[in-house]
């Protein structure tokens, strides 16, 4: 017998599948020169699950301190944090923010999803990277390692500091 939670999850899954089947990759550009086939709904669900897993895993790192060139739970710098979290979810990316900025597919900031990377800097020079955990009408929520507070959850849409330095976004999951 289904419980209320299981029925709700089943309905949500079916609605997600219907949405994905009807809107699979409409107008999306790929980062490779090979023609890309439309992904099956099963692959789309797998991508959505991966994004949720990444967002959830980010939150397990909250409170870990900042460490210059840190790449593990003993302390992180910004790019060490993003590469660590993605690596824990079987996604290999470079260790520096400048190299990460060349990976995946560039996407509009308004379209970011959990697991996407946001890059920050001034005058086009990258100085910081963060992992998106949610994008709602309230703003873009990220988890990132800052030199002053370590790994934190923050709405960058409501931060004048980060909002003014936001350069671009990249998708390293659904490429």
Summarize the structure.
The chain has 175 residues and is of the alpha+beta class.
Can you describe this structure?
With 175 residues, the protein is α+β, with helices and mostly antiparallel strands. The chain has a domain at 53-171: endopeptidase fold (from Nostoc punctiforme), CATH 3.90.1720.10. Helix content is 34%, strand content 26%. The protein is built from five helices and eight strands, in the order H-H-E-E-H-H-E-E-E-E-E-H-E. Strands 3-8-4-5-6-7 form a six-stranded antiparallel sheet. The protein has a two-stranded antiparallel ribbon with strand order 1-2. Strand 6 (139-146) and strand 7 (150-155) form a beta hairpin. The longest helix has 20 residues, at 4-23. It is globular and about 40 Å long. Residues 17-38 have low confidence and may be disordered.
Shape: globular
SSE order in H/E notation?
HHEEHHEEEEEHE
Strand content: 25-35%
What's the helical proportion of residues?
25-40%
The CATH superfamily of the domain at 53-171 is known as endopeptidase domain like (from Nostoc punctiforme)
- Overall mean pLDDT: 84
CATH uppermost class of the domain at 53-171: Alpha Beta
CATH topology of the domain at 53-171: endopeptidase fold (from Nostoc punctiforme)
Q: What is the number of helical segments per DSSP (H or I, 4+ residues)?
A: 5
Instruction: Compute the number of strand runs.
Output: 8
Q: Strand arrangement, largest sheet?
A: 3-8-4-5-6-7
Low-confidence stretches: 17-38
CATH architecture of the domain at 53-171: Alpha-Beta Complex
Distinctive features:
alpha+beta, endopeptidase fold (from Nostoc punctiforme), 8 strands, globular
